[in-house]
Specification:
The chain is α+β, with helices and mostly antiparallel strands. It has ten helices and 23 strands. It has two domains: 2-216, PmbA/TldD superfamily (PmbA/TldD fold); 223-469, no CATH class.
Length: 470
């Protein structure tokens, strides 16, 4: 990095190695089994406000110097502009490792596949079940970061998880049920012990039975209603309408060409009424077992918990050192992350969490609701480029009548406008119902990169929501 100091205002390097494993079954056969490894380094430099980035799989001195030269050339070719200093950050030094009681890569392929095939078989038997699948995934990553500011950080993370799904086919339609979540299940920054604790074998018969039951269930009625969302669906709602909307590069226009901007502006800080007084949201990269947790982000900012919304009012943004300084913030919120060595860090969600309330268990919340709809497990979503107007569909719903869960309903959906929707939040279940939910395919950046993020939520109730058919 010394040679960069003479030409660059700032430079950093990330040396990353990763091992990933995916195993899946499909109708009693092996659907996928792959283990991949990659390693390399990425160099980022800043000259006069312009950034340059280059990556290489050659991690020796020659490879690093070549990547540095290319990054410098790119930065020097950028149009000159007024330089905003990076938000100050004392040099971070040290080591950090996520906790994994059992290394998922030390467990044999035979054991994992045997477990998946047993779960797969437990969902089959009824001819109406046309497709079942069971899925396991693990990721181990080692990262070394150094910067011209004097930072030198090393960290190791292990992720593990999985899930199941069953698709039932009727004369005119198909229905799907998943567990513990759709879109490849759920994952944690933990070891194989979390996959064991999913207890997929016990959930499998229920998943298949509900998929079949949905074929003959009545459709979810349309109209305005009280809505209760399970924690998994609420996590996606939080991700799309709060997390992305508060990424400061979107707000400043830096993401406009790929993933849209935001309805929020820097001037809204401390003034915008985002939701009801029960809405308390934080970006917390210290959350245990969550995929957005780390020791330091990808520009050496230590993990932290920062408020985004307090009592319904906007209090913070997801930021980098550059974007924070651009609007006069004292420091970055530590949200710069890249997927792999060959992508430049961009502002990403850490763990955007909704604090629990005091409404008790899900059963308590339903009992306290005279009439409404309870929706569970995402099926699809759509939201505009400003993160303002949205529509979500879930796999299943149940009517609520006189405080009791009633009949199963198929093809449910709901729609809204972000501040109005969150303004209808009037109850959140207590800490005992609060869970970490993952999203494994959050896309952003050019060239694109998929990031793994988590959200902590408990089931919650919203009043006067537009319910429709998907």
């Amino acid at each position: 990095m010394d040679s960069a100091g003479a030409r660059a205002d700032y430079a950093d390097v990330r040396v990353v190695s990763a091992t990933e494993e995916q195993i899946a079954t499909r109708n009693g056969t092996l659907g996928a089994a792959a283990r991949s490894q990659e390693a390399g380094l990425g160099v980022r430099v800043r000259i006069g406000g312009g950034w340059g980035f280059a990556a290489t799989r050659h991690t020796d001195r020659t490879g690093a110097e070549d990547a540095l030269a290319r990054a410098l050339a790119i930065a020097e070719a950028q149009p000159r502009a007024a330089t905003v200093p990076l938000a100050p950050q004392p040099p971070s030094r040290g080591e950090w490792s996520s906790r994994a009681e059992e290394d998922p890569f030390a467990v044999s392929l035979e054991e994992k596949l045997e477990r998946l095939l047993a779960v797969d078989a437990a969902m089959r038997g009824d001819p109406r079940i046309a497709l079942v699948s069971a899925h396991f995934a693990a990721l181990h990553e080692h990262k070394l970061f150094a910067s011209t500011d004097g930072a030198l950080c090393e960290q190791w993370t292990t992720d593990c998880g999985g899930g199941i799904s069953a698709t039932a086919i009727g004369p005119e339609e198909s229905q799907v049920r998943s567990y513990p979540a759709s879109h490849d299940g759920n994952a944690w920054r933990a070891g194989y012990e979390r996959f064991r604790e999913l207890d997929l074998e016990r959930a499998a018969p229920r998943v298949a039975e509900e998929a079949i039951a949905l074929l003959s269930a009545p459709p979810c009625p349309a109209g305005r209603s009280t809505l209760i969302l399970d924690g998994g669906q609420l996590a996606l709602q939080l991700h799309e309408s709060v997390g992305h909307a508060l990424e400061l590069d979107r707000i400043l226009g830096g993401e406009a060409s790929y993933a849209g901007t935001s309805f929020v502006s820097p001037e809204d800080l401390g003034r915008l009424r985002y939701g009801s007084e029960l809405m308390n949201v934080s970006a917390d990269s210290t959350t245990a077992e969550a995929l957005g947790s780390f020791g330091w982000d990808d520009e050496g900012v230590p993990a932290t918990a920062a408020p985004l919304v307090e009592r319904g009012v906007l209090r913070g943004f997801l930021s980098s050192r550059e974007s924070a300084a651009a609007i006069g913030l004292e420091r970055s919120s530590g949200c710069m992350r890249a997927r792999g060595f060959d992508r430049q860090p961009v502002v990403r969600m850490t763990n955007v969490n909704l604090a629990p309330g005091d409404a008790g268990t899900l059963a308590d919340l339903i009992a306290a609701t005279e009439r409404g709809i309870y929706m569970e497990t995402n099926r699809s979503w759509s939201i505009d480029s400003r993160r303002l107007r949205f529509q979500f569909a879930t796999e299943a719903a149940w009517e609520i009548v006189d405080g009791a869960r009633g009949q199963l309903l198929k093809n449910p959906s709901y729609a809204g406008v972000t501040p109005t929707f969150w303004g209808g939040l009037d109850a959140i279940c207590s800490q005992s119902e609060w869970r970490i939910w993952s999203l494994l395919n959050c896309g952003k950046g050019e060239p694109g990169q998929l990031m793994r993020v988590s959200h902590g939520t408990a089931p919650a109730r919203f009043r006067d929501i537009e319910i429709g058919l998907s």
